[in-house]
């Protein structure tokens, strides 16, 4: 079961990376695309980790808490990346090509940040329940 979950998480990460890479277009060099993808995923990872930490700081996670944290974090990072990064990449590509002015680019970034904040707020409320479910699942596997 855990192997299947990790395979799904890997697939989600690959989809997030490939979508973002595709939306950056052919004009941008591979180094710049790589930097954009790495920085984007790192920022989302930091935000999801921080949200997880805040939402579960008063929960006794026990010895299996780290596994649950990794499953939750590595599941929600690519999901958030799939929702946010391709659209940001497309806007960034258009901005770099001069096809999108600064004000519309800024407005698109504000909309994407707002969507990301709403996602993180929703995740904040679900992380506690998800954490408890993962802990129960791990205890059933060990039994």
How would you describe the overall organization of this protein?
- Helices cover 85% and strands 0% of the residues.
- It is an all-alpha fold.
- Helix 2 (30-55) packs across helix 3.
- The protein is elongated, with a radius of gyration of 17 Å.
- The two termini are 14 Å apart.
- The model has no long low-confidence stretch (mean pLDDT 89).
> In this structure, how is the largest beta sheet organized?
none
DSSP helix count? 4
What helical percentage do the residues reach?
over 70%
Structural class: mainly alpha
Features of this protein?
mainly alpha; elongated
List the helices and strands and how they pair.
Elements: H1 2-23, H2 30-55, H3 65-96, H4 102-142
How would you sum up this structure in a few lines?
With about 140 residues, this protein is mainly alpha-helical. The chain contains four helices and no strands.
């Amino acid at each position: 079961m855990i192997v299947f979950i990790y395979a799904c998480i890997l697939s989600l990460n690959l989809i997030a990376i490939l979508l973002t890479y595709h939306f950056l277009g052919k004009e941008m060099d591979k180094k710049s695309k790589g930097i954009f993808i790495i920085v984007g995923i790192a920022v989302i990872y930091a935000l999801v980790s921080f949200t997880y930490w805040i939402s579960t700081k008063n929960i006794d996670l026990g010895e299996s808490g780290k596994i649950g944290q990794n499953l939750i974090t590595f599941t929600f990072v690519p999901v958030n990346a799939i929702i946010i990064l391709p659209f940001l990449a497309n806007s960034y590509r258009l901005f770099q090509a001069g096809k999108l002015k600064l004000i519309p680019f800024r407005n698109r970034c504000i909309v994407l940040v707002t969507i990301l904040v709403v996602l993180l707020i929703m995740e904040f409320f679900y992380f506690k329940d998800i954490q408890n479910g993962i802990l129960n699942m791990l205890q059933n596997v060990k039994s």
